[in-house]
Amino acid sequence: MPHDLPKAYDPTAIEDHWAEYWVSEKLFTQPTPQKEDGLDHQSSFDILLPPPNVTGNLHMGHMFEHTESDILMRWHRMRGERVLWLPGTDHAGIATQMLVERQVVSEGSTRQQLGRDAFIKRVWQWREHYGGTILSQMKRLGASVDWDREYFTMDERLSVAVREAFVKLYEQDLIYRGAYIVNWCPRCQTAISDLEVVYDEHKGHLWEIRYPVIGEDGKDTGEFLTIATTRPETMLGDVAVAIHPEDERYTHLHGKKLRLPLMDREIPIITDDWVSREFGTGAVKVTPAHDPNDFALGQRHNLPSINVMDDTAHINDQGGKYKGLDRFVARKEVVADLEAHGLLAGIKDHVNNIGHCDRCKTIVEPRLSLQWFIKIQPLADKAIAAVKEGHIKFTPEMYAKTYLNWMEKIHDWCISRQLWWGHRIPAWHCSVCHKTTVSREDPTKCAHCGSDKIEQSTDVLDTWFSSGLLPVSVFGWPGITSENRRDFDTFYPTSLLVTGFDILFFWVARMIMMGCWFSLDVPMPDGSPRSLAESVPFREVYIHALVRDANREKMSKTKGNVIDPIEIVKQYGTDAVRFTLASMASPGTDIAFNVARTEGYRAFANKIWNAARFLFMNIDRAADAGITIDAASLGFMPTVEPGAPLESRWIVAEFHATADKVNSALAIYRFDDAANAIYQFFWGSFCDWYLEIVKLSLDFNEGADKGRTTAALSTLVGVFEASLRLLSPFMPFLTEEIWHAVYDGKPTAKSIALTHFPQPDSAAMEPAALDQMGLLQSLIVEVRALRKEIGVEEKVAVPIELRIDGQVKNVVSENRPIIERLARVTEVRFVNQISGGLAKHATSQFDVSVVYERKIDVAAECEKLNKEIAKQEKNVASSDRQLGNPAFTAKAPTHIVEGLKKQRDEAQHLLDKLRSDRDSLGC
Ligand SMILES: [Zn+2]
Ligand SMILES: [Zn+2]
Predict the structure, then answer these.
(1) Which of 146, 415, 528, 919 is most buried, taking the most CB atoms under 10 A from its CB?
(2) pTM of the predicted model as reported, rounded to 2 decimal places
């Protein structure tokens, strides 16, 4: 038999096959446009996939992001646009290094023992074996990305871009190196950016320490100045104590010196407006090497900086007798020693906001260190203007404000990391003249003194430095010439970025800064300079919601409520999971992922499968009767002749109206509205109504009206084929399978994804057909409800009485067979008034009643009633027994007792009703 579909819908049986087919046939590859293709930018739609970490595994958030992106991609592709979804992975400096370090340690070695070169080799090996798991998972889930353009941020091509960007900014005097306070992770042994620090409230202490005041004679005066601190161990690096100049408590101490306890060092008392008189004692210790505010104070007052800790946050040789101690051990000893010397004035409870390394959760140590920074203001100014002038649009809109708030308060960006895995900074330090050479090519000599005693910086660049460059680097920057600029001209700026709020600052903001800065290197195709509007990396940003569990809790490993998308896909199929996510995705609202809904959409997929089987069965029966549907008539928007039967005109009108809703909803990222419109159309209009009605016209018997059957069948097949295309972006696997079957193995394209997305024609949304069918539907619904109310058995057909307005009466008379079939009606009696004594339903257009005299088997009914009465009597008796037992009522919780009382009353009520029924039957 042609069009053979297995009886049961089994997603696993079809999904692997199509996923592999899409990749091997390179269906979603978007080659570099050639000159003869024209470069009309309007017709392109492209998105960069937020590159997952090379260490990553697919989680529900990814699956959600990829579902939304893939729906948009498939939709735009089917609208005939030049579509590109560009995938890749990020080398993820800290995360990857941590993982491989752990592996090395488990083998009894360390990163340091291996040495830099050998360790980096290990990371590459690791990447070969395990990297990119998430991309293979994406392949299996059918993401329609261009696999031929897949990149890795450490690829040679992208590394050239990273180097160019660094050198260029350096030449523009926008990169500097200096000793500043950074967030230091003692475990990762690197500086990390402000964004990589997560803050937690901790109950800690505020220690109050007495610093002896020194008199003119150089001896202690016996007076003390008390300071308060949350990190007493840092006092080892104190260089001053600061007070507010107008703090009257301390006026007499202006210009005096203090003796730093434990270190026996003389330090000055300085005055500065920055000091808060209200905090602690109003006197603060100044430790420029270990606190950003103190560092600024130190700069203002020309104070030295004494760094008392090493890279692992152990006290170094600047810390006297505490040398070698871990910072928290040192804290205990410092406090104990102060107490022993009578210099501890007090300990107060204090809630601290403590920063942790986002990667390894170690407490971050603010610490002075020599790092590379970008002077960010000129880049930020452009990035602010790009959004303020409307060249980049945010959805939901509120994120534009969040972005601008952050961007307007931005600090210089510390871009160096003390890691081994990453892009090594292209700067060479000269040990002769101590100057730095920054160069595009590896230098052999110092650019300043010509010495060959130069060594490359051991630092690497922040991972986000390279990912921030992606929108320009993936399309060929730097090195764009008139010969190789077609990708850039076609795809830059990209159309849209779909991403999560969590990387708005990390990545989105940095891409905007770097895109607006570096794309200026590439003039417009006609040679004119690039405007800000054309220099943005993307024209729109869509920030998607978070996927939470069914109770709206954030998914987390510690809570154990994480849903693995791969597992859930195995259970329900990719299509059902995608549809669940889409149907719940409205901008700005988090998703409470509920498996029950996925079960529902699995049933939806099943419904479509069965509809296809019904269709194919009829196509085969038609073929036997000599009726064939021309495949050339498919692939368009369904149309219908004006004189066609109501159900044909109606389903075509409904289809156009649905296509209209879906297109409009997708244009504003209302994935939920689009999915729900398709669901209602397919399940409700098409399966529940149209299929039932069209059965009346599919008569393949000898002597039947062949013309009518042919017309009905071609509308049925036409609407079904178009519906598959409408559904395809949401359920790509199922629709691909059935669509190929519709064409009986001879499809018009390699994939349904390469056909046309249904575009509505307002003329086809015939209002009369929609109204008339609406009337029939509401009549059928009312009759069905009445039948249920008065207990008409399923199989019994009955007459109805109908009072209806003259204008629409003929709609009913002309479509009597539909009502008779769908509402099980033998006869429609038009009346001016419903007969007395009949139960009726009234609507604004009609009154209807079912004429039914119930015939029952009295003996059988009595037996049924007696059985039920016996059962309820038992229930009541058992409840009475329990409630009458004082031991139970005394011990059981109130709500249990109350519940039981309620149950008993309900059973009693039912019993009364059953007994009265029995009496009226005369049993
Ligand atoms: Zn760390
Ligand atoms: Zn030199």
Answers:
(1) 415
(2) 0.84
